Amino acid sequence: MSEIVKCIFCLMERKGTVEHIFPDSLGGLLTIDEVCKSCNDQLGSKVDQALVNHELMQLARFTKKIKGKTGKIPNPIGVGRLKDGGDIVHNRVNKNGDPDSLYIVPRQVEEDDGKTLKFSVDVTDKKKLPQMVNKALLRRGKQAMSEEEIFSKIQNGIVDQPEITIEMSFDLILYK
Fold first, then answer.
1. How many domains does the chain have?
2. Which domain does 142 fall in, by range?
């Protein structure tokens, strides 16, 4: 037997469980079977989980397209903002981690004059716009509008190559 110091639980158990030296969700293939179930569970929940879920590891897994145990690639750049409008944008990727689509989260803004409401919606949510507008109008004690009235006031603002700002922060002490 190698000179591995075992815990009290390891001394009581006859057979060790398989422990990945580097978590398998990070592509780790090297394993040992000298770790008791209790220690393996502790390593998994305290060390492996913190490492695998760390922002730098998720970014590395995303760029190298390393799938986790669930078969998914993390998307650390999933939420951002349009540079000019400030709308929240979801950067969707497919199951292989390749860019799939952008989705603008619905938003309403009341202008400084207190009389004007502006709505931003993704083109896939265009049908929901009348409901959103009328709900906002009714909350303000205003009369609801017909779908035709609402759609006549739409100003399509399609951005061919949108610039998106994504904020990321990394806890380097936890990572270390």
1. 2
2. 79-164
